[in-house]
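[recover] target loaded
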């Protein structure tokens, strides 16, 4: 059986029929007095559905110690510990054999870790891009501050347009004036 599969349910007018393809046998499940057949079909590697877990939840899901498979006397249940210290049911149906949830757990641990890694790479790329833009704007602001022919008021105005979130102290350091003088120029503009 492939690591990642997609399940399909086929419905007929008289009954809902389903089949779960396993390596060794074909399993039929009874669900509300109807036979349900689930067709497992391999997914393409490029198509990986992004989960709706938050980053914190995804980090907890990637930790194998936050999962357990428990036998209640009848079936095996896959549980996880995400929000609190309580164990919650992860999959709504029980399993007759412990190997099935164990296999699913291994597959999903891999998928969640892959998704978490992709999210971290994406967020780091966004941060690095923003930092690059900030550094370019800072370089332009320093060039403007070092121009000899411009008035201080126009320098302050253009630096504020380039770096709107810059502190007064950093702007004063760029312009090589005191913070009091910078405050005076800012007051005069308003």
């Amino acid at each position: 059986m492939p690591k990642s599969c997609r399940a399909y349910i086929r419905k007929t007018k008289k009954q809902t029929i389903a089949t779960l393809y396993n390596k060794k046998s074909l399993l039929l499940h009874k669900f509300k007095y109807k036979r349900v057949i689930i067709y497992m079909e391999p997914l393409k590697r490029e198509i990986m559905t992004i989960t709706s877990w938050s980053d914190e939840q995804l980090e907890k899901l990637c930790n194998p110690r936050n999962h357990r498979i428990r036998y209640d006397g009848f079936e095996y249940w896959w549980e996880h510990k995400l929000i609190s210290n309580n164990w919650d049911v992860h999959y709504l149906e029980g399993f007759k054999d412990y190997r099935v949830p164990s296999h699913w757990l291994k597959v999903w641990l891999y998928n969640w870790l892959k998704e978490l890694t992709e999210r971290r790479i994406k967020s780091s790329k966004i941060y690095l891009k923003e930092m690059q833009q900030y550094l370019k704007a800072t370089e332009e602001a320093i060039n403007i501050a070092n121009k000899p022919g411009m008035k201080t008021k126009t320098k302050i105005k253009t630096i504020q347009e380039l770096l709107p979130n810059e502190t007064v102290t950093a702007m004063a350091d760029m312009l090589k004036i005191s913070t009091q003088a910078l405050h005076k120029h800012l007051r005069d503009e308003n």
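[recover] notes: Strands lie at 5-11, 16-17, 20-21, 26-27, 29-31, 34-36, 38-42, 67-71, 76-80, 88-89.
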